[in-house]
Amino acid sequence: MSRATRKNIRMGKQCAALIALVFIVYSNTFDNSFVWDDAKLIQENIKVQYLKYIPQFFTRDYFDRATAPSHSGLSQQYWRPLVLLSFSADFFFWGRNPLGYHLTSIIVHALNAILVLTVLSMIPKTRPAAWYASLVFALHPLNTNAVAFISGRTDLLAATFFLLGCVFFLRHITMQRSGYLTIPWLTLCLAVSLMAKESLMAAPLLLILLGVCAAPASRRRFAEALFASLAVLAVFLLYRAIADLPLGDWRTALRTISIRTILAAAESVILYGRLFLLPLALYLDRFLSLPSPMAPGALSLAFLLLAVSLMAIRSFARGNPQGFFFLWFACALLPVSNIIPIYPGIASTQIYIGEQLLYLPSIGLSGTLALLWRATLNRQGNMAPLARTAGASVLVLFGILTYAHNEYWQNDLTFYEQTVRRSPGSYRMLLNLGLSYAQQQRYDDAVNMISRSLEQNPRWAIAHNGLGAVYAMMGNADGARREFQRAAELDPMLAAAHYNLGMTAANTAEAAGHYRRAIEVSPLYTAARIKLAAAYNAQGETGNALRILNEALAYDPRSFEARAALSVTYEKTGCFKEAIEQYGIISSQYPGCTLAAEKIRVLKGKTGPPCMQE
User: Fold this and answer.
1) Helices 127-139 and 3-25, packing angle to 10 deg
2) Could you tell me the pTM of the whole model?
3) DSSP class of 351
4) Which of 78, 216, 371, 537 could disulfide-link 173, Cβ–Cβ 3.0 to 4.6 Å?
5) At 287, is the secondary structure helix, strand, or coil?
6) Does residue 573 surpass a pLDDT of 50?
C-alpha cells in the first residue's frame, strides 16, 4: 500500500470520526423548537416559503428593511442572501418542522470541521495540529450558538465557503504551474461567504496569514490569489452601495470610537479567551460596560493584549505556527471586535459580546490548544500517556458541555429565562420573555418583564407594541391602544403597531385605515389584508374585499385563512362558482378539512350573478 493511499485512508477515518462526533454531541437538538429570530426569519417569513421571492434575497436586507427589528441601539442592516436561500431550501423539504433545519446546521458544522482538518493538513507547519484542532473545533461548547440556534447558521455558512476558498487558495499558491481553475473557484467561494456574513471582509488578511505560513511556490501566484480576494471585497462593497444596502451606520460607528471603547474591546478579547478555555455559564446576550480610561485593570489588560500580539507577530515572522494561530484568531475577530463598535447606538455605555462571533476565530484558538497538546505529547519520559489522557479528557469534557448547553436552545421559554437570569439587563430578552409568559396566560409576569424592558429602553417601539398586545389579552383596551399608538409614533415603519391599532379601532372605517397603513409598510402582511377585507365587507365594499383577498393569495398562496375568507366572501355574494373553486383548493391543500368538502356539496347546482371585483 502506497504512502498516499495510507494517508487517504487515515484522512477518511478522521473525517468519519468528526461526522460521528458532531452528530453525537448535537443529537439532542433534533427535539429543539424554533427560537427567537427563527420566528421572524422562517416561520413568519413568507419569502422563504416560496421560490418566487428568491430574487428579493439579493436586493433586500436580511430582515427586510421595512420590518427590520428596531432595537433602538442594537439595530443593524445585514445582507445575507445565502442564509435565506438555505432556509428556503429547508422549508421546501421540511416545511415548519424544525428537525430538518437542525439537521442542516449539524451537517454544515460537520463539514466545517472536516474543512478545518483539510486546510490545516495542507500546510506543513500546522499539519501536526490539524487532527486535534479539528476535534476541538467540532466539539467546543462555544460553537453551540452557531449550530443549535437555527438563525446562527450565518456563521456556519460563511465559514463553509471561506474554508473552501482556503483550500483553492492553498492549491493555487503551492502548485508550480496551473492545472486547476483555482482562481475562479476561490473567487466564487469568497463571494458566496460574504453573502452569509459581513465579517468575512477579513478574508484577505486571513489569506495573507495562510499564504505566508504555507510558503507559496511563487510570489506571483500568491499575488494573483490575494488580488482576487481584494477584487471580491471591492465588488461586494460596490454592490451594497449601489443596491442601497450600506454596512450599517458606519459613519456614526467611527465617531463613537474612543479610548473607552478600545479598552472595552481589549477586555472582550481576554473574555473570549477565558470563555474558550473555561466554557461555563454561556449565554447569548452579553454586554460589557465601558471602563474608565484610567482604570488600572483595563489598562493592564490592554497592555497585556498588546504584548501578546507583538509576541505573536514576532513568532509568526520566524515561521512558528503558534504565531499563525493567534493572528488567525485576532484577524478573524477583528471585524466584530468592537474596535469600531458593532452597535454604535449603545457604544457610549457598553459593547456587545457575542459568543457566536467566535465561530471562525475559534479555529485559531483550537490550533493553539492543539499545539500545546502536541508539545506535551512529544516530551520524553512518562508525559506522553498523561498527555493523551489529558487531551482525550478535554475533548470528552467539551462534548459533554456542548450536549448540555444545547438545552439552552430547547424552546423560547428556556432560552429567554436562562438568558434573563444571567443577563438581567438585557431588555431584548426581557421583552421576549414577557411575550412568552403572555402566551402561557401569565399576564402579570408578562407585564412585569416588558415594563422592566421599557425602564431600560423607554423609546423601544417593539416593546410598547408588545405591552399593548398583553394589555389586549387582559381586556385592557384603553391601555392596549395607548401602547400601540406610542409604538406607531416611535416607529412609523412598525407594521404590527398599525395592525394592532386597527384591531382596537373605535369603528370600521378607522380600522381599515390602520390596516391599509400596515400593508403599505409591509406588503406581505397577510393578516392585515384579511382584516382589511373584513372591514370592507362590513362597509358593504365587497369588490374591494375580494380584490384584497386575491392579492393576499397572490403573495401567499398557501394561506388557509385568506383562502377561507375569500371562499366565504364569494359564497355570501352569490358567486357560487368561484366559491366552489376556492373550497376545492382548500380541500386539496388540507384534505382533513371536511367543512370545505361539505360546502362544495351544498353549493353545487346553485347559480348566482356574475362576480364583480373593484
Assistant:
1) 20
2) 0.92
3) E
4) 216
5) strand
6) yes
